[in-house]
Write a structure and sequence with these properties.
The structure is a single chain. This protein has 406 residues and is mainly α. It contains 16 helices and no strands. The chain has helices at 12-30, 35-42, 51-79, 81-92, 95-101, 105-133, 139-168, 170-191, 197-202, 215-225, 227-256, 261-289, 291-311, 315-342, 349-378, 382-402. It is globular, with a radius of gyration of 20 Å. Keywords: Cell membrane, Membrane, Transmembrane, Transmembrane helix, Transport.
Length: 406
């Protein structure tokens, strides 16, 4: 058996296959970004002031994805990356059918629970596999490439599904798009993806093995005992407030500002596209200039951009602000994952990244629930922008004051 080699160039073909996988994963979640909030009103009557019910699908998505992230790393260390990836695609197969035939909002919530399983297992595995195959000093670049591919797909899916909805209707449009993407992802995962666990083990050669902690021990260590991981985990949780705002609140808020679904989708698409594309720069920049400046700067830029959205009243300014928030996310998002990998022993990296992803995506549930309750209480949406903007500014300050490991 030939000796395994690390590095992007040495494993280019498999890394490109993995980038295609995360692109398909991004398409799967992207198809829900603007259409599902629209379905809430047109198909199930959740418009008007039913803000809390509107947020339920993201609360469920965030909770399920967080748990899947936590166990995905552990499962992949035990059973292999490829098996977990395939399991994630299998879980997604019923989603288009649930959305097509949904008689009530509960079916949509069930579909997003399966979406959380898919995203937690598949997105985690595409990143873990690329980290396995590349050099340790390429972590920021790899995170940037991974998130660029995934979030470029999120932006593309939002535009394509908005067009399909105009032509075929929301249910049939989502069914056609979702079925094609999910089946393709599953087939490619089975036929062309390689198991990369051996590359991860090769990273540990020459390192004296330490006793592997239990999942509970790893969770406690990363969530409380380690000061750097605690700072990174809280930042990951809070930054999902921003994405939850864009996912749930912005489509409805733009409609309340007399924009069409296509206009609102286009502005939201700018956010996702800038986020995705900019990570080609910011991921590798964090390898060169350090993690902390990009994390803190990104958190603060997002916070300012969110507050500006509610303070301005122009389509062009909203578009500019969406791009500003997208660039802030590009600064912090791949950098947070790379920073967690920095302070994680290679043998436990997948598990500790799983703990980080648990807290990060649990932010969807915490953020969506908080926004839903506040909006319901005040009978308005503006307060949610203030909640998210201030939370991002304070979270960035926490990282600035406590994170010291570069």
């Amino acid at each position: 058996m030939p000796q395994l080699q690390h590095g992007i160039h040495a494993n280019l073909a498999q890394i490109l296959h993995q980038l295609l996988q995360v692109f398909l994963v991004g398409l799967t979640i992207g198809m829900t970004r603007t259409v599902v909030p629209g379905l809430a009103e047109t198909e199930f009557g959740l418009g008007g002031q039913q803000f809390f019910l509107l947020t339920t699908f993201v609360v469920v998505f965030g909770a399920v994805k967080a748990v899947m992230n936590l166990f995905a790393g552990r499962f992949s260390d035990r059973f292999g990356r490829k098996r977990v990836l395939i399991a994630g695609w299998i879980a997604a197969l019923p989603i288009p059918f649930l959305l097509l035939y949904a008689p009530n909002w509960g079916w949509v919530v069930a579909a997003t629970a399966l979406l959380g399983i898919n995203q937690g297992l598949c997105w985690s595995m595409t990143l873990n596999s690329k980290l396995d195959m590349t050099h340790l000093n390429q972590k920021g670049l790899v995170n940037g490439l991974n998130e660029f591919s995934g979030y470029a797909a999120v932006a593309l899916a939002g535009v394509v599904t908005a067009w399909l909805v105009d032509v075929y209707g929301a249910r049939l449009g989502l069914f056609m798009f979702g079925t094609t993407v999910i089946v393709l992802g599953l087939l490619l995962a089975v036929l062309v993806i390689k198991e990369t666990r051996p590359w991860a083990l090769a990273h540990t050669q020459g390192i004296k093995p330490a006793p592997a902690p239990s999942l509970g021990q790893a969770f406690w260590y990363a969530s409380w005992q380690n000061r750097n991981l605690l700072a990174l985990n809280q930042a990951g949780l809070v930054e999902k407030f921003t994405d939850a705002l864009v996912w749930i609140i912005l489509p409805v808020w733009f409609v309340s500002q007399n924009l069409t679904l296509v206009q609102g989708s286009s502005i939201i698409g700018v956010y996702a596209l800038v986020w995705g594309a900019s990570q080609l720069i910011t991921g590798s920049a964090s390898d060169r200039f350090g993690r902390k400046p990009l994390i803190v700067g990104g958190m603060w830029l997002c916070g300012i951009g969110v507050l500006l959205l509610v303070l301005t009243h122009s389509v062009w300014l909203w578009t500019l602000e969406a791009g500003l928030i997208g660039f802030g996310m590009a600064m912090l998002y791949p950098t947070l994952g790379a920073a967690v990998a920095d302070v994680s022993p290679p043998a436990q990296r997948s598990t500790l990244l799983g703990v980080y992803r648990f807290w990060r995506d649990f932010g969807y549930a915490v953020g969506a629930l908080s926004m839903g309750l506040l909006a319901q209480w005040t009978q308005g949406l503006d307060v949610t922008f203030w909640l998210v903007g201030v939370a991002m500014l304070l979270s960035g300050a926490w990282v600035a004051l406590t994170f010291n490991k570069e």
